[in-house]
Amino acid sequence: MGLFDFFKKKEVLNTEEKETLDKGLEKTKEGLFSKLSRAVVGKSKVDEDVLDELEEILISSDVGVDTTLKIIERIEARVARDKFVDTKELDNILREEIAELLAENKSQDITNAFKITDVKPYVIMVVGVNGVGKTTTIGKLASQFHKAGNKVILGAGDTFRAAAVDQLKLWGQRVGITVIDHGMNTDPASVAFDAVKQAVEQNADVVIIDTAGRLHNKVNLMNELSKIKRVMQKFLPEAPHEVLLVLDGSTGQNAFIQAQEFTKTTEITALAITKLDGTAKGGVVIGISDQLKIPVKYIGVGEKIEDLQVFNKKEFVDSLFKRK
Question: What topology in the membrane does the UniProt record assign (predicted)?
Fold first, then answer.
């Protein structure tokens, strides 16, 4: 099974994946619905007071101010058009407007989970600050690619943190794939070059390059990421095919701020939002999708390898608004 077949298969979640997604979003759902219920107690129609409450609810669920205002404006227009909107309909109205908002970002169509090309190897450079689950995400991705029948090579390019190199090597041993490793305090660009070179020589399908997770100095970070790109391009001119930014969903709006910072330093083509199963801040996925216009391609909703799921907008909204 090649890359295209792997992602085509993921257009629809199977029963187990859907159950995992439902469970992973439980805390966000509980927070959202309990607040919604309180907002409409004793009220029969959606009026200005209810909309004010809804605005606070969405912001407190980490949807973000700008995206929240968009959603409220849409619902206001609907109320003005229909004259009377029953509060019992609020769940469905909110669901429809959020689904429509996400659907407007055409770059997030599930069939484009990755831009499939005939070029081999397909190079993914992964960036993100320390602690967001970057290395674990790389390991899970590599395992999924490998399981789908692809030959995968990893590049341990976060050479400033011993734990990152060791962790990636453990993933390689666990999954049975090659990890290119030059050890600590070595040149990350050299690691990336060797990983791509070996992938070309071995006719590998996918190369995933880890990078340093430092954000304290934007200039240094930008220079470092640019150097890694330039060095890879000496061997494979179109590399990297994707720059995947990993964000920790449990940090809410901090994840959005990190995304903004990274987009200033390098061209991000895709996002992975992790740790959604342990937080009530899952609304951040909606805000990030809407505001950055960078496709969310993966979400982490559990500890298992398969709990790193290809992001499906429809399934996400369905799970978010599913009442028990």
Answer: Peripheral membrane protein
* 275 assigned to a ligand binding site: yes
Annotated binding-site residue? 172: no
Does residue 126 share a domain with residue 100?
Answer: no
pLDDT at 133: 92
Q: Is 293 annotated as a binding residue?
A: no
Number of domains in the chain: 2
Q: Check the annotation: does 22 bind a ligand.
A: no
pLDDT at res. 13? 76
pLDDT of residue 132: 92
What is the SS3 assignment for 62? coil
134 known ligand binder: yes
The Cα–Cα gap between 269 and 252 comes to: 21
DSSP state of 128: -
Structure confidence at residue 162 (pLDDT): 80
CATH number at residue 136: 3.40.50.300
Using alpha carbons only, give the angle 311, 316, 319 rounded to the nearest 5 degrees: 145
Handedness of CA 106, 109, 113, 114 (dihedral sign): negative
285 is in an annotated binding site: no
Contacts of 319 (CB under 8 A, 6+ apart): 18, 21, 22, 25, 29
Strands 152-155 and 178-180: what pairing?
Answer: parallel
Same domain, 135 and 63: no
pLDDT at 217: 58
Do residue 231 and residue 171 come from a single domain?
yes
